[in-house]
Amino acid sequence: MTALLDRRSVLSAIGLALGGCAAPRGIPPAGFYPIAYPESASAYGPILDHGHEIPALDLSKIDPALLRQLTPSPGPYRPGTIVVNVGERRLYLVRPGGAAIRYAVGVGREEALNFRGSAVIGRKAEWPRWSPTEAMIRRMPIYAHYAGGLGGGIDNPLGARALYLYRGNRDTYFRLHGTNEPETIGEKVSSGCIRLFNHDIIDLYDRVSVGAPVVVLQEAREPFRADAEADDLYWPAAPEPPWPGFEPDWGQ
Fold it and tell me: Looking at the domain assignment, is residue 242 inside a domain?
């Protein structure tokens, strides 16, 4: 029993201070919500994934605006580009024809903690492992319990998947990843990484490849930047589809 309690204490500490990615729990949204989109019940149902059981989301307690949906593209980005708008707390995967899949995200609780600019997906991992650095162990000796790494699992703060942001072939130490705290999605809660529902990070992970471009905007209405660093992210503005009655396409 003592060993179990010790493990829970360590995991709790990691959830509060995981380098660059974890954060305190947010405040669950108040009230209950009707299931506005019945098809979401299957998209957010229970998942058995590589031996790990991901529980269904209780959609009666989640604002339907936080569920993934098809929307117009956030700008003239090339299909396949991931656009994170920190101010909106939304992530967009740009699709052909001026469309995008929109996901709700949790972002850094302070602007200074958030990544900004362009990057690429340099690595992908399923049920990622987390290992504290020597510096982190010096600051938080409790991390010594996991000097050999914390294996992937439902209690791991990185969740079911991680997409690693690289710039110039170097790891930026920022990630797009899942979470073991679904109530924090849509909030300013993390230490800089972008977190999604486990269901959504799996969906996003399956749709993108290593090398996919990523652009992170800090403000909800930040203007598009076509600097040398991000110049290849953009298409000329495309005409918008007739969105009233537009049929979603969740294919790859």
Answer: no
Is 127 a member of any domain? yes
What tokens does 205 get? 């992970």
The catalytic residues are 177, 193
CATH of the domain at 135: 2.40.440.10
* 225 token code pair: 């930047």
Tell me if 245 is assigned to some domain.
no
Contact present, 147 and 130 (Cβ < 8 Å): no
Closest listed residue to residue 197, CA positions, set 111, 68, 95, 99: 68
Whether 249 is in a domain gets the answer: no
Of 167, 163, 183, nearest to 91 by C-alpha is 163
Query: What CA–CA distances, in Å, run from 148 to 129, 137, 143, 162?
Result: 10, 11, 10, 19
Query: Which string of DSSP letters, residue by residue, matches 92-144?
Result: EEE-GGGEEEEEE-BEESSGGGS--EEEEEEEEEES--B---HHHHHH-GGGG
Has this prediction a pTM greater than 0.85? no
Structure tokens at 122: 């340099």
Residue with tokens 């690693």: 164
Domain that holds residue 104: 2-24+52-233
Answer for the pair 252, 96: CB distance below 8 angstroms, yes or no: no
Q: Which residues are bridge partners to 106 per DSSP?
A: 195
Give the model confidence (pLDDT) of 3-21 as tens digits: 444 555 544 444 444 444 6
184-193, 208-217, 237-246 — which is least confidently predicted? 237-246
- Count of domains forming the chain: 1
Whether residue 21 contacts residue 191, with contact meaning beta carbons closer than 8 Å, is answered with yes
